[in-house]
Amino acid sequence: MKKELLLKNSSSDRIAPMNLTEADEKLFGHELSSMQNDVYMYSFKNMTIKFPLFYENNTYNSVIASYVYKDISRAKLTVARVAKKLRKFTFKKERLKGKYLWITDTLSNGYFHWLADVLPKLVMLKEEYKSKVLLQSKYKEFSYVEKSLNYLGYEVHYFNEVDSVEVEELLFIPNIANSGSYYEDSMNLLREEFYKYFKFNVSKCKNEKVYISRAKATRRKIKNEEEIETILKKYEFNIYYFEELSFEEQVKLMLNTSHLISLHGAGLTNMLFMPSNSKVLEIRSQEDDHNNCYFALTSAMDHNYYYTLAKNETNNFHSGDVIVDLEKFEKAIRYILL
Questions:
Q1: Which residues touch 304 (CB under 8 Å, ≥6 apart)?
Q2: Which terminal Cβ of the chain has fewer Cβ within 10 Å, N or C?
Q3: Domains in the chain: how many in total?
């Protein structure tokens, strides 16, 4: 195993919400600065993958396994259980010559994690390390995965999780920051790569005002959605259901968006594609001082962050529905339109 420094440690100061009140400082105060550690790229020769088992020169390798499963104790437990089951099967063998990249963990197929955690790694790679990306076959289900990799100039090689894959050289890159934190340079380089692909000129941005609705989502919805849509239309916001748009359509829309409003959720990740100095209004559960990934992303992308708090009757910030205070919501809209 060899490792090479990819990014040096860095710190960043985040811009406080533009409409922050003294009463809400407890929600954001601990997020106003962040520290990112050194990031290394690991190179493994003659790596054999019998997922989720990884062997370098026939010796079990825990470096990738512990990353894929987030903590090594859980990885060891999972590996032990799976290994026992897999002894009953005869693997098909696939041999891959040359270099391949491993960039994923158990969360990477999620839209936010793919765009904000995975893709930023690739824009920081030296040209000599740009190789095919090795992905489990399950990633075929998510159209934005291969599309986005193609936009960045990467090819994909899928493998079947029940088969054995032998890779001449596997380059492994862990996340370059904790999920919800960001290396600002990598995030802005990522945006620039999308601009290049779509031949986008910032000066020609159409300055759309966009509301991403979660009405068709399976969880975490706004109970009084109809009432807030009435307010949105009053201020000429266009309402979109991103479930109905392809990844390419989402990107093209956001390239031309200057004002974005949505309930906390993956749709807000699309601020990645908005021109810098745009405005983002997040509807978030009151008392939630943990889920600040979109506040942090707004700062990393050099946007202006605004928020309005909503009542979550279940106190389940991850999946509970919310009720929006209509008066405060309209006040926040007027604020971002100044």
A1: 15, 18, 277, 278, 279, 280, 298, 336
A2: C
A3: 2
Phi-psi region of 8 (alpha: psi -120 to 50; beta: other; left: phi over 0): beta
Backbone angles phi, psi at 289, to 5 degrees: -105, 15
Which ranges of the chain have pLDDT less than 70?
Answer: 69-91, 317, 319
DSSP state of 258: E
- Domain span including residue 318: 198-336
- pLDDT at position 114 is 97
In a domain, 18, yes or no: no
Q: What are phi and psi of 74, to 5 degrees?
A: -70, -35
pLDDT at res. 62: 77
Judgement on whether residues 225 and 91 belong to the same structural domain of the protein:
no
DSSP-based three-state secondary structure for 47: strand
323 and 223 in contact (C-beta within 8 Å)?
Answer: yes
Query: Do 204 and 177 have their domain in common?
Result: no
Q: What is the CATH number of the domain that holds 292?
A: 3.40.50
Q: How far apart are CA 259 and CA 138, in angstroms?
A: 34
Which of 190, 211, 226 terminates a domain? The answer is 190
pLDDT at 86: 54
Q: Report pLDDT for 69.
A: 66
Distance from C-alpha of 113 to C-alpha of 293, rounded to nearest angstrom: 11
How large is the angle between the packed helices 326-336 and 225-234, nearest 10 degrees? 30
pLDDT in the model for residue 72: 46
- Per the omega criterion (within 30 degrees of 0), is the bond before 17 cis? no
* CA distances in angstroms from 156 to 18, 28, 132, 145, listed in the order given: 41, 39, 5, 9
Give residue 91's pLDDT: 60
Looking at residue 76, its pLDDT comes to 52
**Strand ranges inside the chain, DSSP E:** 2-7, 10-13, 33-36, 39-50, 53-56, 59-60, 93-102, 132-136, 156-159, 164-172, 208-212, 238-240, 257-263, 279-285, 304-312, 322-324
